[in-house]
Amino acid sequence: xxxxxxxxxxxxxxxxxxxxxxxxxxxxxxxxxxxxxxxxxxxxxxxxxxxxxxxxxxxxxxxxxxxxxxxxxxxxxxxxxxxxxxxxxxxxxxxxxxxxxxxxxxxxxxxxxxxxxxxxxxxxxxxxxxxxxxxxxxxxxxxxxxxxxxxxxxxxxxxxxxxxxxxxxxxxxxxxxxxxxxxx
Length: 184
Fold this sequence. Notes:
By secondary structure, this protein is mainly α. The chain is built from six helices and two strands, in the order αααααββα. A two-stranded antiparallel ribbon has the order 1-2.
């Protein structure tokens, strides 16, 4: 809810800063200030708050800047088109900006996973013992997936054995499944 509150606050701040200049600012310039606010909200807070900021911006613009001021009544029909275009442009720009924000977050996440995989590959390449392999895999799975793990090694005729300390307790059914996998 905090992101939505900040979106409304940003629109109020824009209106508060622009209102003293309502005599000297043309209405299209005032619209651009509100559209810029929607873009900033979309970048900082995401898609939902940007939609709210779009609606609040149109309402504030109508109430504070369009004659008759301090009323939602519209005497000139051209302003209805202005409101519709302002809302549409704000929504589109907000959606595009929020989409770019989402893509940037996804790229950061992929970079972190790639870095973790690179570190795992480096550790595995330098591993000299099964215990080092077990430690590297255990650390990777815990850090990336929050998963506990146990490394099992197929040991010929005797079946699979634990490579190190068990990270997870394996019950009888788990051991049967492991043996079947190793046998096939």
